[in-house]
Amino acid sequence: MPTFAYQAVDNGGKRTRGVANAASPGALTRTLEDRGLLVLDVAESSAGAAGGGRWFKFGRRREVLEVTRALSALLPVGMPLARALDAASGVAVGEVKAAIQDVRERVERGDTMSAALANHPSLFSPLYVGLVRAGERSGDLDAAFARLATQLERDELLRGRVTSAAIYPLILATAGTAAVLLLMFFVLPRFVTLLEGSGAKLPASTSIMLGVSHVLRRFWPLLLVIPTAGAIAAAWVRTTAEGARAWSLALLTIPAVRTLREYALAARFARLVGVLLGGGAPLLTALDDTVESLADPIARDDAIRIRTAVRDGSSLRAAVAAGTLFPPLLAQLIGVGEDAGELRTFLLKSADIFEERTERATQRLATVAEPLMIVIFGAIVGFVALSLLQAIYGINANSFK
């Protein structure tokens, strides 16, 4: 059951804070009101967001997409927002359904849609909230959800293609690692007694291999430190701003990954600004919302720099070109759009180009990784087999002397 943090005021006017488990924020609100408290705010606690919201996103992403599609279809026909939310909640289950119902209750109490969505950061990303906020400002919430549905479908398609390209290298890495560990822990120990009791001088390669096997078998509990450290590092990256920044910097320092990351961030920036401009927002407002909608801390810092430069009178092209994060092609396309008076069109075209390049770069990286891993693990297995054959041949040769 989700955990929520709440703020309330009792009958004496004393403000209280607390954390409680409930099926939904609305259910917790009703429980607190039954106790005579006036509820000021209910939101997911950090523990709940970190535990459930960040680790099990795949199925919920699909449900959020279905809810967004439903809203993009219901709002244009004139259905009131609260009724549309109630109807859209029918396509979701579990936590997503409870969140949509809570959003409906907040909207009925007078909250804005974007503020209600922001209370569920594990389900609705900064991009989602930012586009809804832009739709509210322009008075065109219907179009905002239509753009959101299109964007989420595009993101899901790109994510699926990238994942598909990475599956086979991951399988190769897992199978290769398992094969090497099987040799070191189970196959080699069976030859140790035979080889050491033969009295023959072992080849240097065999001695090295047996030494490595002995160390691994003696200190095997230390191998458990690797996945444990990986899990701790992943939690640090996902739950802290410092971890997210460190991970983003690490990705940008790896030569093969840097280009891929730059393409992806350029596509995200261009898509956000283009979509927000399409909602009727002025450029500075679109950049403000883009800063709030970017999840990557390095990209967010660069967006802040670009926004400051544009506010000081620079063109968007010059502001983007002054940085080192985005590829030069982005600034060139933005410049063409500014000269032609079609900035939004060229931003969206830029996003299409860089998303396509991201997909192609991922496929190239996966294509190179596959034979590279085959060669690496093949060389390890070949070295083990050759070492054993050399030792066995040495024993047989000595038996004939």
Shape: globular
Specify the oligomeric state: single chain
Fraction of residues in helix: over 70%
What's the count of strands? Answer: 3
Residue-averaged pLDDT: 79
Percent in strands: 5-15%
Main pleated-sheet profile? 3 strands, antiparallel
Helix tally equals 17
Helix-and-strand structural type: mainly alpha
N-to-C series of helices and strands: EEHEHHHHHHHHHHHHHHHH
Pick out the low-confidence regions: 46-56
Strand order of the largest sheet: 2-1-3
Explain this structure to me?
This protein is mostly helical and 401 residues long. Helices cover 76% and strands 5% of the residues. The protein is built from 17 helices and three strands. The chain has a three-stranded antiparallel sheet. It is globular.
Strand and helix layout:
Elements: E1 3-9, E2 15-21, H1 25-34, E3 38-44, H2 46-53, H3 57-74, H4 81-88, H5 94-108, H6 113-118, H7 126-138, H8 141-197, H9 204-218, H10 225-239, H11 241-253, H12 255-278, H13 283-293, H14 297-311, H15 316-321, H16 328-340, H17 343-399
Antiparallel strand pairs: 1-2, 1-3
Helix pairs in contact: 3-4, 3-8, 4-5, 7-8, 7-13, 8-9, 8-17, 10-11, 12-13, 12-17, 13-14, 16-17
